[in-house]
Amino acid sequence: MKKCIILANGKPPKKKIITFFRKKGFEKLICADGGANSALKMKLVPDLIIGDLDSISSEAMKEFKSSSKIIQLKRQNDTDVEKCLKYAIKNNFNEALLAGVTGNRLDHTFCNLGIILKFFSQIDLSLIAENSHLKSYKGKPNLKSYIGETISLYGFDKKTKITSSGLKYSLKQTTLPFGKKESTSNVATGELVKLNISTGNIFVIRDVNLMMKYDLF
Fold first, then answer.
1. Do 204 and 114 have their domain in common?
2. Mean local confidence (pLDDT), 164-178
3. Chain-wide mean pLDDT for the chain?
4. Statement to judge: residues 109 and 194 lie in one domain
5. Residue 17 belongs to what domain range?
6. Which of 46, 143, 178, 191 gives the lowest tally of CB atoms within 10 Å of its CB?
7. 49 with 36: CB under 8 angstroms?
8. pLDDT digits over 179-192, tens only?
């Protein structure tokens, strides 16, 4: 399994989170343009820097020009994060963790959440934002958990139906269309949450620090 972290130019996670995931097999660090600035501050060396290179600082460029592979793609019909994902897919990465993709601009955050849906069928994707871990699921995933863990689930349309076991507020062929219904702050009742998701996919959001503490990946 080939896994990578894609670090963008938004609010970066704490370095300990990047370090944790690299130990979990996300060995390659790909910076989306200005994400290299965050890597520099965290004293991390990217394996690759990809983008139109309009956001990377001169300091970061100078620091990484001899240690990182830098790919400039000037096209404007996709974002720097999308450029990184397309590279990862082309180079047979199975899974990518997006970081630094949220921040002060809500439009960028909204766009990057959409990117997870856009690339869902091509690569396994998850996202770190502040203390949250977001992952998209389909089919019948089993989630390692612990009693009392807060788990929130979000759907997108009326076609996707969810059945659960191991949650305090159980779902039985429940639809969670965006803007109408959600399962925010549901609670795990044991060490395993089973989901059955038919026709589509959903977002599951959990506390990344607690997931790291209990090794729920």
1. no
2. 97
3. 97
4. no
5. 3-130
6. 178
7. yes
8. 999 999 999 999 99
CATH number, domain of 146, equals: 3.40.50.10240
| Cross-strand bridge partners of residue 93 | none
Residues 209-212: contacts with CB within 8 Å, 24+ apart?
209/131, 210/146, 210/149, 211/133, 212/17, 212/20
Phi, psi at residue 19, to the nearest 5°? Answer: -60, -40
Q: Where are the beta strands (DSSP E) in the chain?
A: 3-7, 28-32, 48-51, 69-72, 95-99, 124-129, 132-139, 142-144, 150-154, 161-165, 174-175, 183-187, 192-207
State mean pLDDT over 12-22. Answer: 97
13: which DSSP letter? P
Q: CA of 213: how far to CAs of 71, 74, 103, 163, 216, in Å?
A: 36, 41, 25, 27, 8
Among 130, 145, 164, residue at a domain's last position: 130
Residue 192 and residue 92 share a domain: no
Whether the pLDDT of residue 125 is over 90: the answer is yes
Distance between start and end Cα atoms, the chain = 15
